[in-house]
Amino acid sequence: MSDQPVRYMDRTRDYYRALGYAKDYVWARFDEVPFARLARPLAESRIGLVTTASPMGLSNRDAKGHRHVWSGDVAPVPEKLFTDNVAWDKESTHTNDVGSFLPIEVATELASEGVIAGIAHRFHGVPTEYSQRKTIEEDAPQVLARLRDDGADAAILCPL
């Protein structure tokens, strides 16, 4: 067994070339990272959770079929979320345990221990679109507005 890392970007590039795509995917790059230090200690901060999963049984698509940002209540913790539309290794693992990719119960426990002040009453789902423009111009501002509406001081991004 090799102890060499998997060259994810090279592997992905080769995969899409094998599928016949003429142009390589342009990976997102930000010379100025759009993150900031916490304004207050973590123990005084309310945390919001953001996932790439979709709601079960409900559509997060608009009338034209485009996926959009959606929100769900953290209580009760959802039993299942739709993950089949997201790329993950479906032969080696599963997403039957929502807590493995959306840590609502762990965040609630951290709040009860005083590690964080609390969690927002909703979590938010972002579509996994392959458009950097849509993510930056549409989805990210919507998620930020929802997190602010929920009183979140910070967010944990929970991709699959």
Shape: globular
Order of helices and strands: HEEHEHE
Question: Rg to the nearest angstrom?
Answer: 18 Å
Helix content: 10-25%
Overall tally of domains: 1
Mean pLDDT: 87
Structural class category: alpha/beta
Distance between the termini: 26 Å
Our estimate of the beta-strand percent is 5-15%
What's the total number of strands? 4
> Unreliable stretches, pLDDT < 50, 5 or more residues?
none
Number of helices, counting only DSSP H or I runs of 4 residues or more: 3
The order of strands across the largest sheet is: 2-3-1-4
Please provide a written account of the structure.
With 160 residues, this protein is of the alpha/beta class. It has one domain. The protein has 3 helices and 4 strands; from the N terminus they run H-E-E-H-E-H-E. It has helices at 8-18, 104-112, 132-149; strands spanning 46-51, 70-73, 118-125, 154-158. It has a 4-stranded mixed β-sheet, with helices on both faces. The longest helix has 18 residues, at 132-149. It is globular, with a radius of gyration of 18 Å. The chain starts with 7 loop residues before the first helix and ends with a strand.
